[in-house]
Design brief:
Elements: H1 2-10, H2 17-28, H3 41-60, E1 62-64, E2 69-72, H4 78-89, E3 96-98, E4 107-109, H5 114-137, H6 146-160, E5 166-169, H7 175-186, E6 191-194, H8 200-203, E7 207-216, H9 219-230, E8 234-241, H10 247-250, E9 261-266, H11 282-288, H12 295-314, E10 320-323, H13 326-335, H14 342-347, E11 351-353, E12 366-371, H15 376-382, E13 386-390, E14 416-417, H16 420-433
Length: 434
Protein backbone atom coordinates (compact mmCIF):
# COMPACT_ATOMS: atom_id res chain seq x y z
CA UNK A 1 0.00 0.00 0.00
CA UNK A 2 2.62 2.49 -1.14
CA UNK A 3 0.06 5.17 -1.94
CA UNK A 4 -1.53 5.10 1.52
CA UNK A 5 1.82 5.03 3.31
CA UNK A 6 3.03 8.01 1.27
CA UNK A 7 -0.12 10.01 2.05
CA UNK A 8 0.10 9.33 5.76
CA UNK A 9 3.79 10.21 5.92
CA UNK A 10 3.73 13.27 3.67
CA UNK A 11 0.44 14.93 4.52
CA UNK A 12 -1.13 13.48 7.66
CA UNK A 13 0.78 14.75 10.67
CA UNK A 14 -1.63 13.89 13.47
CA UNK A 15 -0.76 14.01 17.15
CA UNK A 16 -2.28 10.53 17.35
CA UNK A 17 -0.82 8.65 14.35
CA UNK A 18 -1.75 5.26 15.77
CA UNK A 19 -5.41 6.24 16.06
CA UNK A 20 -5.42 7.64 12.53
CA UNK A 21 -3.95 4.45 11.10
CA UNK A 22 -6.37 2.33 13.09
CA UNK A 23 -9.31 4.38 11.82
CA UNK A 24 -8.14 4.12 8.21
CA UNK A 25 -7.24 0.44 8.20
CA UNK A 26 -10.55 -0.39 9.88
CA UNK A 27 -12.25 1.08 6.81
CA UNK A 28 -9.90 -0.70 4.40
CA UNK A 29 -11.16 -4.08 5.55
CA UNK A 30 -14.21 -3.59 3.30
CA UNK A 31 -11.87 -3.35 0.30
CA UNK A 32 -9.81 -6.48 0.79
CA UNK A 33 -10.20 -9.09 -1.94
CA UNK A 34 -10.51 -12.78 -1.21
CA UNK A 35 -7.23 -14.71 -1.10
CA UNK A 36 -7.96 -16.36 -4.44
CA UNK A 37 -8.61 -13.03 -6.19
CA UNK A 38 -6.28 -10.30 -7.36
CA UNK A 39 -6.60 -7.14 -9.40
CA UNK A 40 -6.83 -8.12 -13.06
CA UNK A 41 -4.76 -6.54 -15.83
CA UNK A 42 -7.78 -4.82 -17.40
CA UNK A 43 -8.77 -3.41 -14.01
CA UNK A 44 -5.25 -2.04 -13.46
CA UNK A 45 -5.04 -0.49 -16.93
CA UNK A 46 -8.44 1.15 -16.58
CA UNK A 47 -7.51 2.63 -13.20
CA UNK A 48 -4.12 3.83 -14.47
CA UNK A 49 -5.80 5.57 -17.40
CA UNK A 50 -8.23 7.29 -15.04
CA UNK A 51 -5.38 8.42 -12.79
CA UNK A 52 -3.19 9.59 -15.68
CA UNK A 53 -5.90 12.01 -16.86
CA UNK A 54 -6.25 13.67 -13.48
CA UNK A 55 -3.36 16.17 -13.67
CA UNK A 56 -4.78 17.34 -17.01
CA UNK A 57 -8.17 17.92 -15.39
CA UNK A 58 -6.57 19.94 -12.59
CA UNK A 59 -4.63 21.96 -15.16
CA UNK A 60 -7.38 22.65 -17.70
CA UNK A 61 -10.79 21.86 -16.20
CA UNK A 62 -11.22 24.72 -13.73
CA UNK A 63 -14.61 26.34 -13.14
CA UNK A 64 -15.60 29.27 -10.98
CA UNK A 65 -18.12 28.55 -8.21
CA UNK A 66 -20.38 31.00 -6.40
CA UNK A 67 -21.43 28.45 -3.75
CA UNK A 68 -20.27 28.73 -0.14
CA UNK A 69 -20.24 25.06 0.85
CA UNK A 70 -18.70 22.04 -0.88
CA UNK A 71 -19.97 18.49 -0.37
CA UNK A 72 -17.96 15.30 -0.94
CA UNK A 73 -19.10 11.66 -1.25
CA UNK A 74 -22.72 12.65 -1.58
CA UNK A 75 -24.03 9.82 -3.75
CA UNK A 76 -26.45 10.31 -6.62
CA UNK A 77 -29.55 11.44 -4.71
CA UNK A 78 -28.84 15.16 -4.52
CA UNK A 79 -32.42 16.05 -3.65
CA UNK A 80 -32.29 13.93 -0.51
CA UNK A 81 -28.84 15.23 0.46
CA UNK A 82 -29.93 18.84 -0.08
CA UNK A 83 -32.97 18.32 2.13
CA UNK A 84 -30.83 16.80 4.90
CA UNK A 85 -28.42 19.74 4.81
CA UNK A 86 -31.29 22.22 4.82
CA UNK A 87 -32.97 20.55 7.80
CA UNK A 88 -29.83 20.25 9.89
CA UNK A 89 -27.46 23.03 8.87
CA UNK A 90 -29.89 25.49 7.31
CA UNK A 91 -28.17 25.41 3.93
CA UNK A 92 -30.10 26.33 0.78
CA UNK A 93 -29.57 24.35 -2.41
CA UNK A 94 -28.05 27.33 -4.22
CA UNK A 95 -25.35 27.59 -1.52
CA UNK A 96 -24.13 24.02 -2.03
CA UNK A 97 -21.63 22.68 -4.56
CA UNK A 98 -21.79 18.90 -4.90
CA UNK A 99 -18.34 17.77 -5.99
CA UNK A 100 -18.50 14.75 -8.30
CA UNK A 101 -15.29 12.77 -7.82
CA UNK A 102 -16.63 9.70 -9.64
CA UNK A 103 -17.72 10.91 -13.08
CA UNK A 104 -16.90 14.60 -12.94
CA UNK A 105 -13.80 16.10 -14.54
CA UNK A 106 -14.11 19.65 -13.23
CA UNK A 107 -12.33 21.32 -10.32
CA UNK A 108 -13.65 24.51 -8.74
CA UNK A 109 -12.42 27.75 -7.25
CA UNK A 110 -14.15 30.76 -5.76
CA UNK A 111 -11.20 33.11 -6.13
CA UNK A 112 -8.46 32.02 -8.53
CA UNK A 113 -4.93 31.79 -7.15
CA UNK A 114 -2.05 30.70 -9.38
CA UNK A 115 -0.11 29.65 -6.27
CA UNK A 116 -2.96 27.37 -5.12
CA UNK A 117 -3.35 26.05 -8.67
CA UNK A 118 0.32 25.09 -8.87
CA UNK A 119 0.15 23.52 -5.41
CA UNK A 120 -2.90 21.44 -6.39
CA UNK A 121 -1.25 20.35 -9.64
CA UNK A 122 1.95 19.39 -7.81
CA UNK A 123 0.02 17.35 -5.26
CA UNK A 124 -2.00 15.59 -7.98
CA UNK A 125 1.06 14.63 -10.02
CA UNK A 126 2.81 13.16 -6.98
CA UNK A 127 -0.33 11.39 -5.74
CA UNK A 128 -1.00 9.86 -9.17
CA UNK A 129 2.63 8.71 -9.41
CA UNK A 130 2.50 6.93 -6.05
CA UNK A 131 -0.92 5.46 -6.83
CA UNK A 132 0.37 3.99 -10.12
CA UNK A 133 3.46 2.60 -8.37
CA UNK A 134 1.13 1.05 -5.81
CA UNK A 135 -0.97 -0.55 -8.55
CA UNK A 136 2.14 -2.19 -10.03
CA UNK A 137 4.10 -3.04 -6.90
CA UNK A 138 1.75 -2.72 -3.92
CA UNK A 139 -0.56 -5.23 -2.25
CA UNK A 140 -2.63 -6.75 -5.06
CA UNK A 141 -5.33 -8.03 -2.68
CA UNK A 142 -6.68 -4.53 -2.04
CA UNK A 143 -9.31 -2.93 -4.26
CA UNK A 144 -7.88 0.38 -5.47
CA UNK A 145 -10.54 2.01 -7.61
CA UNK A 146 -11.20 4.44 -4.74
CA UNK A 147 -7.67 5.89 -5.08
CA UNK A 148 -8.92 8.19 -7.85
CA UNK A 149 -11.77 9.49 -5.68
CA UNK A 150 -9.45 10.22 -2.78
CA UNK A 151 -6.94 12.05 -4.99
CA UNK A 152 -9.65 14.14 -6.64
CA UNK A 153 -11.13 15.16 -3.31
CA UNK A 154 -7.77 16.11 -1.84
CA UNK A 155 -6.71 17.98 -4.98
CA UNK A 156 -9.91 20.03 -4.73
CA UNK A 157 -9.16 20.88 -1.10
CA UNK A 158 -5.60 21.84 -2.02
CA UNK A 159 -6.94 24.13 -4.73
CA UNK A 160 -9.51 26.00 -2.64
CA UNK A 161 -8.55 25.60 1.03
CA UNK A 162 -10.40 28.20 3.10
CA UNK A 163 -12.28 29.65 0.13
CA UNK A 164 -15.37 27.64 1.10
CA UNK A 165 -17.05 28.34 4.43
CA UNK A 166 -17.20 24.63 5.17
CA UNK A 167 -16.68 21.20 3.62
CA UNK A 168 -19.21 18.45 4.25
CA UNK A 169 -18.67 14.71 3.88
CA UNK A 170 -20.98 11.72 3.65
CA UNK A 171 -20.11 8.00 3.53
CA UNK A 172 -17.42 8.36 6.19
CA UNK A 173 -17.07 4.57 6.36
CA UNK A 174 -15.27 4.66 2.98
CA UNK A 175 -11.46 5.08 2.95
CA UNK A 176 -11.65 7.90 0.38
CA UNK A 177 -14.08 9.86 2.55
CA UNK A 178 -12.06 9.35 5.72
CA UNK A 179 -8.83 10.41 3.96
CA UNK A 180 -10.65 13.50 2.67
CA UNK A 181 -11.72 14.33 6.23
CA UNK A 182 -8.13 13.82 7.44
CA UNK A 183 -6.88 16.12 4.70
CA UNK A 184 -9.41 18.77 5.78
CA UNK A 185 -8.11 18.29 9.31
CA UNK A 186 -4.50 18.85 8.26
CA UNK A 187 -5.47 21.95 6.27
CA UNK A 188 -7.20 23.32 9.38
CA UNK A 189 -10.51 23.69 7.54
CA UNK A 190 -14.04 23.94 8.87
CA UNK A 191 -15.66 20.60 8.05
CA UNK A 192 -18.60 18.38 8.98
CA UNK A 193 -19.00 14.62 8.66
CA UNK A 194 -22.26 12.70 8.69
CA UNK A 195 -22.21 9.42 10.59
CA UNK A 196 -25.07 8.09 8.40
CA UNK A 197 -27.92 5.96 9.77
CA UNK A 198 -25.83 2.85 10.28
CA UNK A 199 -24.76 1.26 13.52
CA UNK A 200 -21.44 2.92 14.27
CA UNK A 201 -19.68 -0.18 15.52
CA UNK A 202 -19.71 -1.75 12.08
CA UNK A 203 -18.95 1.35 10.00
CA UNK A 204 -17.27 4.15 11.97
CA UNK A 205 -16.07 2.35 15.10
CA UNK A 206 -12.70 4.08 15.01
CA UNK A 207 -12.80 7.69 13.90
CA UNK A 208 -9.98 10.06 14.77
CA UNK A 209 -11.00 13.55 13.58
CA UNK A 210 -10.26 15.90 16.50
CA UNK A 211 -11.33 19.09 14.68
CA UNK A 212 -14.33 17.66 12.87
CA UNK A 213 -17.99 18.26 13.63
CA UNK A 214 -19.87 14.96 13.55
CA UNK A 215 -23.59 14.76 12.78
CA UNK A 216 -25.24 11.75 14.46
CA UNK A 217 -28.40 10.62 12.75
CA UNK A 218 -30.32 8.19 14.97
CA UNK A 219 -31.27 7.62 18.59
CA UNK A 220 -29.16 4.46 18.70
CA UNK A 221 -26.10 6.35 17.47
CA UNK A 222 -26.41 8.77 20.38
CA UNK A 223 -26.07 5.85 22.79
CA UNK A 224 -23.21 4.31 20.81
CA UNK A 225 -21.33 7.61 20.70
CA UNK A 226 -21.39 7.94 24.47
CA UNK A 227 -19.60 4.60 24.80
CA UNK A 228 -17.26 4.90 21.79
CA UNK A 229 -16.19 8.42 22.78
CA UNK A 230 -15.60 7.29 26.37
CA UNK A 231 -13.34 4.51 25.05
CA UNK A 232 -11.62 7.15 22.87
CA UNK A 233 -12.38 5.17 19.73
CA UNK A 234 -14.29 8.11 18.26
CA UNK A 235 -12.74 11.53 18.73
CA UNK A 236 -14.33 14.63 17.17
CA UNK A 237 -14.48 18.26 18.27
CA UNK A 238 -18.27 18.37 18.37
CA UNK A 239 -21.20 15.97 18.15
CA UNK A 240 -24.34 17.46 16.64
CA UNK A 241 -27.79 15.90 16.77
CA UNK A 242 -29.21 15.61 13.27
CA UNK A 243 -32.21 14.04 11.62
CA UNK A 244 -32.05 10.68 9.92
CA UNK A 245 -29.87 11.00 6.81
CA UNK A 246 -32.87 9.85 4.78
CA UNK A 247 -35.24 12.39 6.36
CA UNK A 248 -36.42 13.36 2.86
CA UNK A 249 -37.95 9.88 2.55
CA UNK A 250 -38.90 9.48 6.20
CA UNK A 251 -41.24 12.45 5.93
CA UNK A 252 -42.96 10.75 2.98
CA UNK A 253 -43.69 7.49 4.85
CA UNK A 254 -47.39 6.70 4.97
CA UNK A 255 -48.17 6.39 8.67
CA UNK A 256 -51.92 6.11 8.21
CA UNK A 257 -52.13 2.47 7.13
CA UNK A 258 -53.52 -0.67 8.72
CA UNK A 259 -51.18 -3.20 10.27
CA UNK A 260 -50.97 -6.15 7.87
CA UNK A 261 -48.47 -8.37 9.69
CA UNK A 262 -47.63 -9.21 13.26
CA UNK A 263 -43.95 -9.47 12.41
CA UNK A 264 -41.65 -8.05 9.76
CA UNK A 265 -38.25 -9.69 9.27
CA UNK A 266 -35.68 -7.43 7.61
CA UNK A 267 -32.88 -9.24 5.81
CA UNK A 268 -29.39 -8.16 4.79
CA UNK A 269 -28.91 -10.62 1.93
CA UNK A 270 -26.01 -12.43 3.55
CA UNK A 271 -26.70 -15.56 1.52
CA UNK A 272 -25.60 -13.51 -1.52
CA UNK A 273 -22.31 -12.40 0.02
CA UNK A 274 -18.95 -14.04 0.48
CA UNK A 275 -17.36 -14.86 3.82
CA UNK A 276 -16.24 -11.21 4.24
CA UNK A 277 -19.67 -9.80 3.46
CA UNK A 278 -18.97 -8.64 -0.11
CA UNK A 279 -21.94 -8.91 -2.44
CA UNK A 280 -21.56 -11.58 -5.11
CA UNK A 281 -22.81 -11.10 -8.66
CA UNK A 282 -25.19 -13.53 -10.34
CA UNK A 283 -22.42 -15.54 -12.04
CA UNK A 284 -20.52 -15.97 -8.79
CA UNK A 285 -23.66 -17.07 -6.96
CA UNK A 286 -24.56 -19.67 -9.56
CA UNK A 287 -20.99 -21.02 -9.57
CA UNK A 288 -20.10 -20.92 -5.89
CA UNK A 289 -23.21 -20.97 -3.70
CA UNK A 290 -21.43 -18.71 -1.22
CA UNK A 291 -24.17 -18.75 1.43
CA UNK A 292 -22.62 -21.74 3.19
CA UNK A 293 -19.39 -19.76 3.65
CA UNK A 294 -21.06 -16.73 5.19
CA UNK A 295 -21.25 -17.09 8.96
CA UNK A 296 -23.59 -14.12 9.32
CA UNK A 297 -26.10 -15.89 7.09
CA UNK A 298 -25.97 -18.92 9.35
CA UNK A 299 -26.66 -16.63 12.32
CA UNK A 300 -29.68 -15.19 10.46
CA UNK A 301 -31.01 -18.68 9.81
CA UNK A 302 -30.39 -20.25 13.21
CA UNK A 303 -31.09 -17.29 15.47
CA UNK A 304 -34.00 -15.70 13.61
CA UNK A 305 -35.56 -17.39 10.60
CA UNK A 306 -35.74 -21.00 11.82
CA UNK A 307 -37.15 -20.03 15.25
CA UNK A 308 -39.79 -17.83 13.57
CA UNK A 309 -40.76 -20.69 11.25
CA UNK A 310 -41.10 -22.92 14.32
CA UNK A 311 -43.30 -20.32 16.04
CA UNK A 312 -45.39 -19.80 12.90
CA UNK A 313 -46.15 -23.54 12.68
CA UNK A 314 -47.31 -23.52 16.29
CA UNK A 315 -49.39 -20.36 15.87
CA UNK A 316 -50.71 -20.36 12.28
CA UNK A 317 -52.71 -17.18 12.96
CA UNK A 318 -49.43 -15.30 13.50
CA UNK A 319 -48.70 -13.34 10.31
CA UNK A 320 -45.15 -12.73 9.07
CA UNK A 321 -43.59 -10.93 6.11
CA UNK A 322 -39.94 -11.01 5.08
CA UNK A 323 -38.75 -7.68 3.68
CA UNK A 324 -35.83 -8.39 1.37
CA UNK A 325 -32.66 -6.37 1.08
CA UNK A 326 -32.61 -4.34 -2.18
CA UNK A 327 -29.83 -6.54 -3.55
CA UNK A 328 -31.91 -9.66 -2.99
CA UNK A 329 -34.84 -8.08 -4.83
CA UNK A 330 -32.52 -7.17 -7.70
CA UNK A 331 -31.19 -10.73 -7.97
CA UNK A 332 -34.71 -12.12 -8.06
CA UNK A 333 -36.13 -9.56 -10.49
CA UNK A 334 -33.22 -9.32 -12.96
CA UNK A 335 -31.50 -12.69 -12.67
CA UNK A 336 -34.24 -15.01 -11.38
CA UNK A 337 -32.09 -15.99 -8.39
CA UNK A 338 -34.22 -16.63 -5.32
CA UNK A 339 -33.16 -16.60 -1.66
CA UNK A 340 -32.28 -20.20 -0.73
CA UNK A 341 -34.79 -20.10 2.15
CA UNK A 342 -37.72 -19.07 -0.09
CA UNK A 343 -39.36 -22.49 -0.45
CA UNK A 344 -39.32 -23.16 3.30
CA UNK A 345 -40.91 -19.85 4.30
CA UNK A 346 -43.59 -19.90 1.61
CA UNK A 347 -44.53 -23.46 2.60
CA UNK A 348 -45.44 -22.35 6.12
CA UNK A 349 -47.39 -19.27 5.06
CA UNK A 350 -44.79 -16.55 5.49
CA UNK A 351 -45.09 -13.72 2.95
CA UNK A 352 -42.04 -12.37 1.09
CA UNK A 353 -41.92 -8.83 -0.25
CA UNK A 354 -40.39 -8.80 -3.75
CA UNK A 355 -41.87 -5.43 -4.71
CA UNK A 356 -39.86 -2.48 -6.01
CA UNK A 357 -41.04 -0.28 -3.17
CA UNK A 358 -38.56 0.46 -0.40
CA UNK A 359 -39.07 -1.44 2.86
CA UNK A 360 -38.81 1.92 4.63
CA UNK A 361 -42.14 2.96 3.12
CA UNK A 362 -43.79 -0.08 4.69
CA UNK A 363 -42.50 0.02 8.24
CA UNK A 364 -45.94 0.92 9.62
CA UNK A 365 -47.60 -2.20 8.18
CA UNK A 366 -45.94 -4.51 10.72
CA UNK A 367 -46.54 -4.55 14.47
CA UNK A 368 -42.98 -5.71 15.28
CA UNK A 369 -39.77 -5.56 13.28
CA UNK A 370 -36.79 -7.87 13.86
CA UNK A 371 -33.46 -8.19 12.11
CA UNK A 372 -30.01 -9.62 12.62
CA UNK A 373 -28.22 -6.51 11.36
CA UNK A 374 -30.41 -4.18 9.25
CA UNK A 375 -30.33 -0.45 10.05
CA UNK A 376 -34.08 -0.28 9.41
CA UNK A 377 -34.57 -1.28 13.06
CA UNK A 378 -33.10 2.10 13.98
CA UNK A 379 -35.51 3.69 11.48
CA UNK A 380 -38.42 1.99 13.21
CA UNK A 381 -37.29 3.19 16.63
CA UNK A 382 -36.88 6.75 15.35
CA UNK A 383 -40.47 6.59 14.11
CA UNK A 384 -41.84 5.35 17.43
CA UNK A 385 -42.29 1.73 16.29
CA UNK A 386 -41.24 -1.51 17.95
CA UNK A 387 -38.01 -3.08 16.73
CA UNK A 388 -35.57 -5.72 17.92
CA UNK A 389 -32.19 -7.12 16.96
CA UNK A 390 -31.14 -10.70 17.38
CA UNK A 391 -28.24 -10.20 19.77
CA UNK A 392 -24.69 -10.97 18.75
CA UNK A 393 -24.37 -12.62 22.16
CA UNK A 394 -25.87 -15.88 23.34
CA UNK A 395 -27.33 -16.47 26.80
CA UNK A 396 -23.85 -17.08 28.23
CA UNK A 397 -22.46 -13.86 26.74
CA UNK A 398 -20.43 -15.56 24.01
CA UNK A 399 -19.92 -13.41 20.89
CA UNK A 400 -21.55 -14.97 17.83
CA UNK A 401 -20.85 -12.32 15.17
CA UNK A 402 -19.41 -8.82 14.78
CA UNK A 403 -22.04 -7.04 12.70
CA UNK A 404 -23.62 -5.51 15.79
CA UNK A 405 -22.75 -5.62 19.47
CA UNK A 406 -25.38 -4.98 22.11
CA UNK A 407 -22.67 -4.03 24.61
CA UNK A 408 -22.43 -0.70 22.75
CA UNK A 409 -26.19 -0.08 22.52
CA UNK A 410 -26.46 1.68 25.87
CA UNK A 411 -30.10 1.91 26.88
CA UNK A 412 -31.05 0.14 23.65
CA UNK A 413 -29.49 -3.10 24.80
CA UNK A 414 -33.07 -3.90 25.87
CA UNK A 415 -33.98 -4.51 22.20
CA UNK A 416 -31.36 -7.26 21.77
CA UNK A 417 -32.81 -10.78 21.96
CA UNK A 418 -30.27 -13.32 23.24
CA UNK A 419 -32.21 -16.57 22.96
CA UNK A 420 -35.11 -18.33 21.26
CA UNK A 421 -37.05 -18.03 24.53
CA UNK A 422 -36.68 -14.23 24.53
CA UNK A 423 -37.71 -14.13 20.88
CA UNK A 424 -40.76 -16.31 21.54
CA UNK A 425 -41.87 -14.09 24.42
CA UNK A 426 -41.86 -11.06 22.13
CA UNK A 427 -43.81 -12.96 19.46
CA UNK A 428 -46.35 -14.32 21.97
CA UNK A 429 -46.99 -10.80 23.24
CA UNK A 430 -47.84 -9.80 19.69
CA UNK A 431 -50.28 -12.68 19.33
CA UNK A 432 -52.02 -11.70 22.57
CA UNK A 433 -52.26 -8.08 21.46
CA UNK A 434 -54.36 -9.00 18.39
Amino acid sequence: MLFIQWLLKAFIRSDEPYKVRKSLFFRLRFFRLQKDRKLGVSHKLSLILTLAKMPLYVLFKLKKSDQNFLVFSHGSDLESRSYFLKKNLGLNRNEILFFDAIKGVNFYYRSYSSKAHIRALSFTVRAVLFAILDIFFGNSNIQKYWYATAIKNMAQITLTGHQFEAYLLFSLYRPASYLTALFSEEENLNYYVSLSNSILLGTNRYTELPSGKALWCSKMQEEELKILAEKDWVHCAEYIQATNEDVFYHEKINTDIEVKYDLGIYTSGFWARDAKGNQQNSEQLVANQTSSKNYDYQVFLNRLLYPVIKFKKKYPVFSVCIYLHPYERNLYRNHQISPPYLENVVACGIAVDFSDQSSLNKIFETRIGISATSTIIGDRLDNGLVGYYVSNLDEKGNVLHQQIDERYFGEFSRIALRSDDELFEVLKASVKAK
